[in-house]
């Protein structure tokens, strides 16, 4: 219930390849409960599981794991076969090398390379040859390979830097959920930088755990934003422990053993504020419950700390551009 929701931008971007192919996805959206109103509203959000189903449905409908963005299609099942080819490697470096070798066998597949830079490793992606105006395939491949590697060794690989071959996009504010590290734009290639110590770590997964992993991946990898180690992420986890009693900024600062002024400054440096974090969490919890029939609108408002349903109604429309009722109507 505390999972971050997905910006509507990513749903619109994911559909770009289908539009390019002339595929009519209106029936698919209706089946998934994604309304045109939600899709067209820039502030709107969708639930992670809904986004996972959208990606999986598009793969099946287009018969292409690259969703129409690549130079040539990638047949569904390619990612799974790559994982089966890599799962028995003795460490992460061997697994990544074998996975990249697998995709290099396809002439039109995106080119990924692994290179050493002293104590660092760079995973680079040549994204110059495909049609990807919203950078959806670039973002997806970098996220998938990073999170696949983390899953294989059973711990999150800390990113030191993410570089992109294009200017900062309009949805750049969402990048902290995808790439929780310093960002660089207008680079020569899109890439991720991390410490080489991870490469020697043994794989903790096997055929049994891979079977379960592949039931929802790699779509699931895209729909689970990386909380990372930022102060914003730590605060979100702290606030989500008890949403019935929202602590104020002073109480949170005391819990973290820092002054309120220092807390405000650190959050400002991360491009956010205490109120914004609280509103984002309340928004995501509201969307979770609106997609189910477990609570009434009044009960949701009470759980989020609103004294009146009308105040919740106004706040939710400000956060998402849609009313709670409109969300529930298209979800259920």
Automatic annotation (TrEMBL):
<dbReference type="GO" id="GO:0003700">
    <property type="term" value="F:DNA-binding transcription factor activity"/>
</dbReference>
<keyword id="KW-0804">Transcription</keyword>
<dbReference type="InterPro" id="IPR032687">
    <property type="entry name" value="AraC-type_N"/>
</dbReference>
<protein>
    <submittedName>
        <fullName>AraC family transcriptional regulator</fullName>
    </submittedName>
</protein>
<dbReference type="Pfam" id="PF12625">
    <property type="entry name" value="Arabinose_bd"/>
</dbReference>
<dbReference type="GO" id="GO:0000976">
    <property type="term" value="F:transcription cis-regulatory region binding"/>
</dbReference>
<dbReference type="Pfam" id="PF12833">
    <property type="entry name" value="HTH_18"/>
</dbReference>
<keyword id="KW-0805">Transcription regulation</keyword>
<dbReference type="InterPro" id="IPR018060">
    <property type="entry name" value="HTH_AraC"/>
</dbReference>
<dbReference type="InterPro" id="IPR020449">
    <property type="entry name" value="Tscrpt_reg_AraC-type_HTH"/>
</dbReference>
<dbReference type="InterPro" id="IPR009057">
    <property type="entry name" value="Homeodomain-like_sf"/>
</dbReference>
<keyword id="KW-0238">DNA-binding</keyword>
<feature type="domain" description="HTH araC/xylS-type">
    <location>
        <begin position="233"/>
        <end position="330"/>
    </location>
</feature>
<dbReference type="GO" id="GO:0005829">
    <property type="term" value="C:cytosol"/>
</dbReference>
